[in-house]
Specification:
This protein is mainly α. It has one domain. It contains 14 helices and no strands. The two termini are about 35 Å apart.
């Protein structure tokens, strides 16, 4: 783990590849979206407790970073719930692409909150992304069923909450000597509490139907939540923005490929062209101003 953190480019490559499989594991779990979101952070928290204890990170921390970590957990709960439901409506590939539109929201936040100038690359990328998404959704308006449009709306909510989560994570990890696992334990633990409470309130069953489902959910917690997010959160600040943006495009790109490979998603030439345009636009949106 420490080797990957000391080589941040390799770490982000690995983290993006691991997370690209998370949507596949959600689909293979065959449980309600809220329940899969709960077990993702619940198992993730359990797995993270081990290295946290081994590194003796259970020590007193300041109130402010602790509250920030709790805030991250709250926003991440909204992100996971909306994204997991989005997968059920539009499939794992498109759901991941929609969630990754956070790059444009982050750029807008930079302009409004931090007075950063939006370069011509961003001004070109935004309409390109909208055009690409329209091509993926389909040129035939009859295909835009209420269910599909609901999924797209959930994807937009995912992107918004994901953006807030990343902004809070940046603040939490801006201090020196930030414990590698402790904050992730707080975030995932609080997130599991929120999602679990919602599941109880809505009468969802926590029963895992079979061993195959358990394997998928445990893998989701161990790999996507417990491993990938620890690596990315510590490597991302150490990599140039444009370079990191290009690497992280592996996540939505590979996720869409897995959707086609494992779930036989019907995707014609127009759909692939739309995906290419969206991915190119996301990369342009993450590049520094020219």
């Amino acid at each position: 783990m420490m080797t990957l953190v000391s080589r941040p480019v390799a770490g982000i490559f690995l983290g993006a590849i691991i997370i690209s499989f998370s949507s596949v594991m959600v689909a293979l779990s065959h449980v309600n979206p809220i329940i899969s979101a709960f077990y993702r952070v619940f198992f993730g928290c359990l797995f993270l407790l081990v290295p946290c204890a081994l590194n003796k990170e259970f020590k007193q921390i300041g109130l402010k970073p602790c509250l920030m970590a709790v805030g991250c957990g709250l926003v991440f709960a909204l992100d996971l719930i909306s994204w997991h439901f989005c997968i059920g409506y539009v499939g794992p590939g498109l759901a991941t692409i929609l969630g990754n539109l956070q790059v444009f929201i982050m750029a807008l936040a930079g302009a409004l909150l931090f007075k950063e100038k939006l370069g011509p690359a961003y001004m070109i990328a935004l309409p390109l992304a909208i055009w690409g998404l329209y091509m993926i959704i389909g040129m035939d308006m009859a295909q835009l069923t209420p269910k599909y449009l609901t999924g797209v709306g959930l994807g937009v909510i995912t992107a918004l909450s994901y953006s807030v989560f990343l902004l809070l994570m940046r603040i939490v990890h801006s201090g020196n000597n930030v414990p590698m696992f402790l904050y992730q334990v707080i975030i995932t633990g609080f997130c599991a509490l929120i999602i679990g409470s919602i599941a109880v309130f809505t009468g969802r069953s926590f029963v895992i139907p079979n061993f195959s489902s358990l394997t998928a959910l445990a893998g989701l917690g161990l790999l996507s939540q417990g491993l990938a997010w620890v690596i990315i959160s510590h490597c991302l600040p150490r990599v140039d923005t444009s370079r990191a943006g290009l690497i992280l495009l592996l996540q939505p790109a590979l996720s869409f490929v897995w959707d086609v490979v494992f779930f036989d998603r019907l995707t014609g030439m127009m759909g692939w062209l739309g995906v290419s345009i969206v991915l190119a636009a996301i990369y342009m949106g993450m590049m520094r101003r020219a």
